[in-house]
Write a structure and sequence with these properties.
By secondary structure, the protein is of the alpha+beta class. The protein has a domain at 34-87: Roll (2,3-Dihydroxybiphenyl 1,2-Dioxygenase, domain 1). The protein has one helix spanning 42-54; strands at residues 6-10, 13-17, 35-38, 60-63, 68-73, 79-84.
Length: 87
């Protein structure tokens, strides 16, 4: 079975998103609400947004006053966040 994998880059860091195999129970019942990653610079934050857009991955932008964040979900629907304090 071939599984689709998305690789996202944020500066020198890469995040690979792997969908669960059919019937895989791993991760069920997790206590995490979401996983957040810090973009050290505004340029990295903007680059992450551009990469998500290029892959057709929708996200929501939020201005928290002291930081900016984008929220999206991985292939299994788990919530992810990329945030920056470099405004």
């Amino acid at each position: 079975m071939v599984r689709r994998t998305d690789l996202l880059r944020l500066g020198p860091t890469g995040i690979a998103l792997f969908p669960k195999a059919e019937g895989d129970q791993a991760g069920r019942g997790t206590a995490l609400s979401h996983l957040a990653f810090l973009a050290a610079t505004k340029a990295d934050f903007q680059s992450a947004q551009a990469e998500l857009q290029s892959k057709g991955i929708s996200f929501d932008f939020q201005d928290h006053g002291v930081s900016h964040s984008i929220y999206f979900v991985d292939p299994d629907g788990f919530p992810l966040e990329i945030t920056t304090y470099d405004l």
